[in-house]
Automatic annotation (TrEMBL):
Residues 46-323 form the Sulfatase N-terminal domain. GO terms for molecular function: arylsulfatase activity. InterPro entries: Alkaline_phosphatase_core_sf (IPR017850), Sulfatase (IPR050738), Sulfatase_N (IPR000917). This is Arylsulfatase. The lineage of its organism: Bacteria, Pseudomonadati, Pseudomonadota, Gammaproteobacteria, Thiotrichales. Coiled coil: none annotated. Belongs to the sulfatase family. Pfam families: Sulfatase.
């Protein structure tokens, strides 16, 4: 049984109902949406763009046992709705059989939203600011025995603001940002308690293993505002702190259904104390997370246990406690062996673990390896690999990649073995940010231009990390076509203005079907034909070192339909010295 965030595909053949779950209720198909699920009439609220629903022929992102859900309780809030759904699933199950229930809350994922009456109590706490609170939390971790008593709090990472550098108005606004997050955590905590109380009243609590965990470290940005411009048509109607909207009248109701915002890197630093970085990185701040395992029949409790475990260990643990095994075939096809190790022995007092265990993973082009106190870590949109000795540097502040190439190569060799065994498709670490777009089209709500320059810092001796992208500049982008233009005849343009120096006239280039076209003026630069326009088109522009052609490049990307409708970008600026 399952309720909450699915994020494993939205098409009918990707629903949880056909992926192993017998019963689902309140299943959110995409990775997130507004926490205020419905209005006062029970109609769905959403921040997803119109194209999402058009492409899937849906009007709601929610599913129940494979069927679309279009009517909700009035003014439903995600955390309470998922808990209500979880209890309903338990009430309607076959009580003669054991159960497995996955409650995948989206709180406290952005957008940060919670009733103002819940958040108000936290204003005094967060008015202290992230620097004071970070020190206080670090001291509590030491006092609780989680960290050594002689541990030292790392300095604030470079580029992050000191709380005292903010104006009083900025401090007031930032404190209000975080009280909403605290309210979301309180509501989540209460909802977990409500579910446990149901298990107790139904007589199931004493025979239920409960696992509570976070799927990643703290966020550092409101993802939809930073990476998903296709949502701008819906999010533009919300109040956002990122827009610098400090209207006191609006701030009085911060966190209600009219708001859409998230954290910043300073608050992420606090939430991840004392770890390095944040979500969507494979530093410890990205995936070293808290987890709780509770079993009322356990013979031990309150024991400090210092072994490395992963979510990969949950399935072996569940199978072990259920006295069953993982199948070797499915639909007459062989299955890969189940990764992970069982933790069931902990409940019997067995605290031994494999100190030589390797933990290897990849996510969106990033790579991570943990072994015997060493860490290979990587950030998103950056092909650089980092190496840390966690026994001497537990908070990943001293990168040893240059000093210990032997150890970095050892860990990376293990990653390559992992990638081969798991059929990993390597992707570049580059990221093309959304460019400012303008259009004379009438309804380009889901069109966009992305582009940029990636410079890869992988050492030459390690260029096998991504051979095609190593030690070069990669200039390019892609155009996301408006839905109403897909399938129509059209043309793309990549226009480049090159200025070698201030005392020389610029030269203009255009990519065409025949290659690179050059001329002395900007007027009449040619395009290249696309035939019928696809949903999106990647546009490689340049790969190389550029060391022999100093100057400034201004690159424009876009497309045209019928010579009248144009989507273009702000320039990508590339300066070579």
């Amino acid at each position: 049984m399952m309720t909450g965030k699915w994020d494993m595909g939205e098409k009918p053949d990707q629903d949880a109902q056909v992926r192993g779950f017998e019963m689902t209720k309140g299943l959110l198909l995409p990775g997130g949406d507004t926490h205020y699920i419905s209005d006062k009439n029970g109609k769905v609220n959403t921040t997803l763009p119109p194209s999402y629903y058009q492409d899937l022929n849906r009007t709601s992102p929610y599913s129940e046992s494979g069927q679309e859900v279009t009517q909700f309780p009035p003014n439903a809030y995600s955390t309470e709705y998922y808990t209500d759904s979880a209890i309903a699933l338990l009430q309607n199950r076959d009580i003669s059989r054991p159960f497995a229930l996955n409650v995948a809350h989206i709180a406290p994922h952005t957008p940060w939203q919670a009733p103002p009456e819940v958040s108000a109590k936290y204003i005094e706490t967060y008015s202290k600011g992230w620097d004071v609170l970070r020190q206080e939390r670090f001291e509590r971790l030491k006092a609780s025995g989680i960290l050594p008593v002689d541990a030292k709090l790392p300095s604030r990472p470079e580029g992050l603001r000191a709380w005292d550098s903010l104006t009083p108005t900025e401090q007031s606004v930032e404190a209000k940002r975080m009280v909403v997050y605290a309210a979301m955590i309180e509501m989540l905590d209460n909802s977990v308690g409500r579910l446990l109380n149901y298990l107790k009243t139904s007589g199931e609590y004493e025979n239920t293993v409960i696992l509570v965990y976070s799927d990643n470290g703290a966020e550092s940005v409101a993802a939809a505002l930073a990476y998903e411009p296709s949502r701008s048509a819906t999010i533009k109607n919300f109040n956002t702190l990122e827009a610098g909207d400090f209207d006191p009248n609006k701030l009085a109701n911060i966190g209600d259904a009219s708001w859409y915002f998230g954290p910043n890197k300073e608050w992420a630093m606090l939430s991840n104390t004392p770890f390095n970085k944040h979500k969507v990185t494979l530093f410890d701040g990205g995936f070293h997370v808290p987890a709780f395992i509770h079993y009322p029949q356990a013979k031990v409790s309150g024991i400090k246990y210092d072994c490395m475990h992963s979510i990969l260990d949950f399935m072996p643990t569940i199978l072990d406690m259920a006295d069953t095994s993982y199948p070797t075939t499915w639909n007459d096809k062989p299955l890969s062996p189940l990764p992970g190790v069982s933790m069931a022995g902990l409940f019997q007092g067995n605290f031994s673990c494999n100190a030589d265990r390797w933990l290897t993973l990849e996510f969106e082009g990033m790579k991570a390896v943990r072994h015997a106190g060493w860490a290979l870590s990587q950030a998103r949109f950056d092909n650089t690999l980092h190496l840390f000795n966690l026994e001497q540097d537990p908070y990943e502040r001293n990168d040893l990649a240059a000093q210990r190439p032997d150890k970095l190569a050892e860990l990376f060799d293990h990653y390559q073995q992992y990638a081969e065994e798991n059929q990993v498709v390597e992707v570049s670490g580059r990221w093309y940010p959304p460019l400012n777009t303008v259009s004379t089209a009438t309804a380009n709500t889901d069109a966009g231009v992305y582009g940029g320059v990636a410079s890869n810092g992988i050492p030459l001796w390690l260029k096998a990390v991504n051979a095609k992208q190593s030690d070069i500049l990669d200039v390019g982008g892609f155009v996301h076509i408006a839905k109403e233009h897909v399938g129509n005849p059209g043309e793309f343009f990549v226009h480049i203005k090159y200025t070698q120096s201030d005392d020389m006239p610029p030269v203009y280039f255009a990519l065409t079907d025949q290659g690179l076209h050059k001329q002395s003026t900007a007027e009449g630069l040619p395009t290249f034909q696309a035939g019928t326009l696809p949903r999106s088109l990647p546009i490689p522009i340049y790969q190389g070192t550029l060391v022999d052609i100093p100057g400034t490049f201004e690159i424009l990307i876009g497309y045209r339909v019928d010579d009248t409708e144009v989507l273009g970008s702000d320039p990508i600026i590339l300066t070579v010295e």
